[in-house]
Amino acid sequence: MRKFKEVRQDFPILNEFIYLDSASTSLTPIPVIEVMNDYYCNYNSNTGRGNYRIAIKSSDKLENARVKIAEFINGNPDEIVFTKNTTEAINIVVNGLNFKKGDNVIVSNIEHHSNLVPWLNLGDLKLKIAKVDDSYTIDPEDVNDLIDENTKLIAITHISNVFGSKQDIDEISKIAKENNLLFLVDAAQSAGYLPIDINKIKPDFMAFPGHKGLLGPVGTGFLYLKKEIAENLMLKNLGGGTVTNIEGNKFTLEDVPYRFEGGTQNISGIIGLSKAMDYINNIKIESIEKYCSKLTEELYEKIYSIDNIEVYGNPNNIHHTVSFNVKGLNPYDVSKILDETSNICLRSGFHCSIPSLRSINSENGTIRASIHCYNNFEDIKKLYDGLKLISQLK
Ligand SMILES: Cc1ncc(COP(=O)(O)O)c(C=O)c1O
User: Fold this and answer.
1) Of the residues 4, 65, 184, 322, which has the fewest C-beta atoms closer than 10 A?
2) Ligand 1, closest atom to CA 159?
């Protein structure tokens, strides 16, 4: 616990606010901000272009970040593509694959829009929907039952951003392999909260945010992309940095992953993300997982104990995110009151996952409290006190 008390000092926003919206974007620790400042103050320059010393330093830092990111998920650096967020990572895959009319892809009924709308946008592609049970969990057998001869890919979120439920992606990955299907995991809500080992999960694609659980800056994310598949993907963002030669109207592509990274990258952000991984490694991801699990348990129980509140997660499978409503009140009003009276930051509404809210027949969405390792039991107590008062308004 002492360790987490010290961690808190690295997030000055917490001196004023009770931040419970890490599922949207996490806070950024001072050491990460410092390395980004160092870039801007001391070696601000583009990467992979200039041969002056500070440009070489930028390039080296960026490529070292790629190595660090790869190590963090036990992957290879040439399978890491920098992106600005999870959404961009998923779109690279969706728009890079060559689907035929009649092909289908399996997703769940609690996907974030970022792992749904890009697929829907492919017009001719059919989506098959695996439904979660009352613990908001997908039974891998149900996924298996949905597979037919036209199924090409399974795309599943690791942890739900509305209910906090974790899916059995090891088992679903096995099913994908047995059926010769591609497998994409949306790690937006799991990375930085639990250990992720690409060699264990064996996905073909895994989409990551830098700015959520990983404690990196906004505007960062990355895609894990299996090399042999990457070679055959169509490219939608070509330009500077993506080719090695042009002859007439023919061009030669750069190697993977550089061909996916057209234009100047978010250099300071990626260097910051790599520092954030050092920061997490220092605390140890297993300790974060354990501590966040205790906090989540407390969060769920405290909210559940208040009369007049409906809680939607299932305590048997809930990770760092609890969704709820105060009966008879609009979630938007509740979060606004808590902000203005108690400096509590929560998200309310549909959480970019209308299907999740449909699954619980919710008209106005929910209020969502989500934690990270910089939160403490006092934060939860303050939320409890605020909610208790509001719940008595009715
Ligand atoms: C499960 C899930 N997938 C995808 C996203 C999109 O993430 P990003 O904002 O990094 O694109 C989110 C964001 O909340 C999410 O929770």
Assistant:
1) 4
2) 1
Segments of the chain scoring below 70 in pLDDT: 1-2, 394
pLDDT at 393: 80
* Same structural domain, 277 and 296: no
141 vs 139: CA distance, rounded Å: 5
The range of the structural domain enclosing residue 380 comes to 284-391
**Cis ω for the linkage preceding 140 (within 30 of 0):** no
Which of 109, 114, 356 should be mutated for ligand 1, with most atoms under 8 A from CB?
A: 114
CA–CA dist 259, 269 (Å, integer) = 20
CATH assignment of the domain containing 292: 3.90.1150.10
Task: Find the 209 Cα to ligand 1 centroid distance in Å.
Answer: 7
Taking a C-beta distance cutoff of 8 angstroms, is the pair 86, 114 a contact?
Answer: yes
Task: Identify whether residues 97 and 194 lie together within a single domain.
Answer: yes
**19 domain-assigned:** no
Q: Take atom 7 of ligand 1 and give the residue whose Cα is closest.
A: 86
The confidence score (pLDDT) of residue 3 equals 86
CA distance 326 to 136: 21
Known catalytic residue: 292? no
Cα gap 299→322, rounded to integer Å: 7
DSSP 8-state assignment for residue 204: S
Around ligand 1, the residues with Cβ closer than 6 Å are 24, 85-87, 112, 114-115, 157, 161, 186, 188-189, 209, 221, 352
In the reported structure, the alpha carbon of residue 186 is separated from the centroid of ligand 1 by a whole-number distance in angstroms of 8
209 strand-pairing partners: 221
Smallest CA separation from ligand 1 atom 14, residue: 24
pLDDT of residue 123: 86
Give, in order, the Cα–Cα distances in Å from 170 to each of 108, 164, 268.
Answer: 16, 18, 34
Which amino acid belongs to residue 172?
Answer: I
Position 299 scores a pLDDT of 98
Does the residue 227 lie in any domain?
Answer: yes
Helix axes 267-283 and 30-38, enclosed angle (nearest 10): 150
Residue 25, domain member (yes or no): no
Q: Which of 292, 345, 352, 373 is catalytic?
A: 352
Residues sharing a CB contact under 8 Å with residue 356, sequence separation 6 or more, in sequence order: 109, 110, 111, 160, 161, 162, 163
